[in-house]
Amino acid sequence: MRVPLKDSFRVLRDPVAGIWVRRAAEGGRLDRGLGARLFGGDVAVDLGTANTRIFVRGEGVSLFEPSVVTVEVATERLLAVGAAARKMLGRAPGNIAVVRPLRRGVIANFELTAQMLSHFISQVRRPLLSSLIGPRVVVCVPSEATRVEIRALREAVEFSGAREVFVVEEPLAAAIGAGLPVSEPRGSMVVDLGAGKTEVAVISLGGIVTRSFIRIGGEDLDRAIATYIQREHKLTVGPVSAERLKMELGSALPPGEERSVEVRGRSLLSGFPQTITVSGGEIREAIGVQVEAIVAAVRDTLDRTPPDLASDIMDVGMVLTGGGALLRRLDERLRRETGVPVHVADDPLECVTLGAGRALEEMDHHHSSLLPGD
Ligand SMILES: Nc1ncnc2c1ncn2[C@@H]1O[C@H](COP(=O)(O)OP(=O)(O)OP(=O)(O)O)[C@@H](O)[C@H]1O
Ligand SMILES: [Mg+2]
């Protein structure tokens, strides 16, 4: 199955401005008609544990930044946001705190999330428009978020100047973004593997029929790698190095060719910097428990799915989205352990944002997927 992702964004009708907009041929920005220039500016926001992405109506995904801020500890003044702040992770002096204001897809620090979001939204909207009319905003929420957590997200979005806020459940947005036929009376299955959580959903007729949510994501794999290296090599490595090891060596099944890479850290024995060599087999062992938990969640969701929908999924397969979908051979592992065909979405890191963006652009069509934010 081909997942027809961004194709649908090439030519689409903007229902509010009533004009056709067109994506530039080579992955560039959309050419926007007069209507979109006048009434555009509505946005869809995916506030992820690791990354924030913003889809601007009529333009596409216009911002992709790490969900990180740096703050001066004494004054609580915001110093840097996004990529500039992430560069300081593990490298900041004592008077500067590097903070990830979201945890497992929900707000851990309201003030900083609100300030970060305001900063990002101001970057994608032209100053004149933002001062005249606030945007309508679709914001993604984890499917297990509580009412209090959803309210906090909505208030953070309102703080950034939104005129109206809608929420969409992340697995539904992921499925829409992956081009699955969510509105049809047919089972579609999506596994969204984020940094702080993994969500599995079977969708039919625009709603989630069966779901699983586990508090395991890419950051847990990074932590497991750091713990393994500390235990086996007596070396402390930072989160950035652990993530790099995961991306370079991580795999859910043995790959054809085993590789090794060097990593630097601080020796627990001498206290000095030290470089060691780590193999792919070690990383596989380090993340084994977490990968198994993800596989079990997928299996469990399938087990609980009504037979007719399960049979649709046997035919068309499941789609993996989120950064974790890029873990080598995870698709093959899931295929072997469930017997269901598995596809990695074209653009896994942007699926949720694209889906929320499409819900925004086709508000009437996806109306049942969108809920007022309270
Ligand atoms: N090639 C790769 N292999 C394995 N993991 C990867 C790869 N590329 C990115 N990731 C991981 O994907 C995660 C980021 O994915 P994503 O942006 O979908 O998460 P998020 O939306 O911010 O988090 P969440 O949905 O849990 O709130 C990070 O943990 C990152 O390490
Ligand atoms: Mg996500």
| Major sheet summary line | 6 strands, mixed
Which molecules are bound in this entry?
adenosine-5'-triphosphate, magnesium ion
Strand content: 25-35%
Number of separate structural domains: 3
* Count of beta strands: 22
Mean pLDDT: 87
Describe the structure.
GO terms for molecular function: ATP binding. InterPro entries: ATPase_NBD (IPR043129), MreB (IPR004753), MreB_MamK-like (IPR056546). ATP binds at residues 49-51, 243-246, 323-326. Keywords: ATP-binding, Cell shape, Cytoplasm, Nucleotide-binding. Helices cover 35% and strands 28% of the residues. The protein has 374 residues and is of the alpha+beta class. The protein has three domains: 6-64 and 112-174 and 351-372, Nucleotidyltransferase, domain 5, CATH 3.30.420.40; 187-216 and 289-348, Nucleotidyltransferase, domain 5, CATH 3.30.420.40; 218-288, Alpha-Beta Complex (Actin, Chain A, domain 4), CATH 3.90.640. It has helices spanning 34-39, 83-86, 110-124, 127-132, 147-159, 170-177, 218-233, 239-249, 280-286, 288-303, 307-316, 330-338, 351-361, and strands at 11-14, 19-23, 30-31, 43-47, 51-56, 60-66, 69-72, 77-81, 96-99, 102-103, 106-107, 136-141, 164-169, 188-193, 198-204, 207-214, 235-236, 260-267, 273-279, 318-321, 342-344, 371-372. The strands form six sheets. It has a six-stranded mixed sheet with strand order 6-5-4-12-13-22, with helices on both faces. Strand 10 and strand 11 form a beta hairpin. 47% of the residues are buried. It binds adenosine-5'-triphosphate and magnesium ion. Adenosine-5'-triphosphate binds at residues 48-51, 105, 194-197, 217-219, 243, 246-247, 250, 322-324, 326-327, 349.
